[in-house]
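Weekly puzzle thread! Below is a chain. First person to post its structure in token form gets bragging rights.
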Amino acid sequence: MAFNFPKIIPPDSVPLTEWQDWRWQLKNTIKTKEQLERVLELKPEEILFFDSYHAQHFKFQVTPYSLQVLKQCDPNSNLRKILLGDFSEYSQQKQAQLDPLNENANAPVSRVIHRYSDRALFLVTDYCSVYCRYCTRKHFTAKDQVFPSKSEYEEALDYFRSNKGIKEVILSGGDPMTLSDDRLVQVVSDLRAISHIEIIRIGTRVPVVLPMRIHEDLLKRLKAFHPIYIMTHFNHPSELTAEAAHALTQLVNHGFPVFNQMVFLNGVNNDAALVQALNRRLLYLRVKPYYMFQCDPSQGTDYLRTPIQDSLAIQKELWGHLSGLAMSNFSVDIPSGGGKAAFVPNFVESLDIDEVKFKGWDGVEESYINPELKNLKKPKVALQYLQEWNEIKNAKTL
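Winning reply:
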């Protein structure tokens, strides 16, 4: 095997059958400082976090499995910043928004977010097995709303039925994979019964923090409703354990295309070597590295956010050394609901109507010479083409 995926050993006090039961994991999530201190020595900023914690703050919760990953890999690793609270969450923020993507303004009915014309989100639960400290949906997640009420559920389905332009529904939350098998299959079945919905996606961090949730019976039931795409969320190579690798392999073997969305996090993964290691391992497991996202300015995340310039430098460093299969798209969700803005490295040195000069990632300089515009077959298109190039030329900027 090209990569070593470490197997996580459960504590001696927990029988293996219980440890491998995802329901046991959820029942025994760690929620308090006292529970954590039995397993880890907390840092001062982590102790301050709990000492200052109040009910109105974003909930803290980790699974025994994810805590064991941290303990076994390295108790002081940068994964702590994802899993454990930090007093910096309560400090003054440069930009802090409860709803940074302005999702509430794009919610035509309860539990539905419809920002892009051909796809919509269905928030089927507000519950997560682990509450990541950089969560972008703090306005909704962890409010104990769990599954929609009967009226909310029917209202959402009616919205999807009546909007025939919606070709794709993304199950989100919260984490849809924390629902029971029957609930999850019900949702997927009801969506698949809507004729104009072509694609169903499930956004989940379960393969990362609760991989035992991915089991044969569930996958056999869900695969009857393909195509279903799985959007998972690994941020660091250490999260790719033997258990996580098995969960991903099971998904792919049952016909679920799996894509990964990573978030740049300060002191966790804002390093080109770490991103490369993560993406190569994912690709080896037949998971497509899909997005590298800039961390959204949700409340309490300033200590985890990085400058966009930092992310751009990482992307450019990776560009010439990472297969396109393993290269993620770098994107920023424009705050206040402006949608995604994609970035690619700029290799253009100068741009003229007849010639574009490039300098490649390895320093090679060469030009691309445009054909004669008069030879183009569509005159109107050619005129528009000419006008746009002249505007760019006269502006002397990209």
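Puzzle host: Confirmed. Bonus trivia for everyone else. The mean pLDDT is 92.
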